[in-house]
Amino acid sequence: MAKADHKKRESHHHQPITSQGYRLKLHIKPLPGFPRRGKFTSVEELDAYFKEHKLTCLLCGRHYVQLGNHISQGHKISMDEYKEQFGLPWTYGLMGNACRKKFSSYLKKRRAAGKIPPTPSKDHIDKLIKSSRKRRPLVEAYRNDSRCRVLKFHGREKEWSGEDYEEFLRRIQSGRTPSEVGRDPDMPGVREFWKRLKAEPGFRNRYERAWKTLPYSVHVRANKLDENFQRDVVFLRRKGIALGIIAETLGVNMASVRGTWHKLKKQGKLAREDLALERKRRRVA
Asked: Among 93, 57, 89, which Cα is nearest to 75's?
């Protein structure tokens, strides 16, 4: 009997201790209804979860002012794994509403006292910019909220169908740019159109073929003059045609032709004979 009591005390002694001095059980039995199944799917659900004074552990159902130690020591998972499992925003701290307000007030007092600079340092801003390049994708709740706001802006209740994107492509083929079509109230936004192109290679190939058949005047409005335009400018320029006449021939403004010519010159893509002709025309002028 004494031996059994000794083993019990020994196992209790090796249980992990939190920073507040509480011992955590190595295996926490979840309460009825937990762990939660699925992820948060709406911003309203997230607001309701984070507004409480104590946050509910979605794995076992117990309540804590701060979930960090409980999750890492009690459930043996990281906070990022916890957020990934339940669709919680990556930038949200796992603490109750009162604790967040208290921490925010503490930072404001330190900033007012001059212990924290009023604005981030340049090194800190550079660090944030660098980290944003590897930004993790939005959680499901925010994706759904963004989708609903876009549909509401266009006066729709259902998501865009394949026929909507086919109509989008037909309007581009009529001589309009994607940005112009994306501003139509009955069409998806241009960002949604780019996402569709990325998701469906076949649809993207059809768009690219259709775009190449459009006149240069449409390409200028979209600021997407390609190598074909550059080749035509160089071809006509070698025939001794002035830039103004080239612009009129190709159906674009003078600035587009002049900008393309000087861009090719700066990049070193003009042949020696092109540069020689250019100098000769300047001397004649």
From this structure: 57
191 lies in which domain range? 154-214
Asked whether the beta carbons of 241 and 233 are under 8 A apart, the reply is no
pLDDT of residue 215: 94
Q: What is the CATH number of the domain that holds 93?
A: 1.10.10.1550
Amino acid at the residue 127 = K
* R_g of the chain, CA atoms, integer Å: 31
Express each pLDDT in 239-270 by its tens digit: 888 889 999 999 999 999 989 988 888 888 88
Cα separation, 83 vs 80, in Å, equals 5
Q: Could you please report the per-residue DSSP string of 247-271?
A: HHHHTS-HHHHHHHHHHHHHTT-S-
Say if residue 199 is in the same domain as residue 279: no
Residues 89 and 52 in one domain: yes
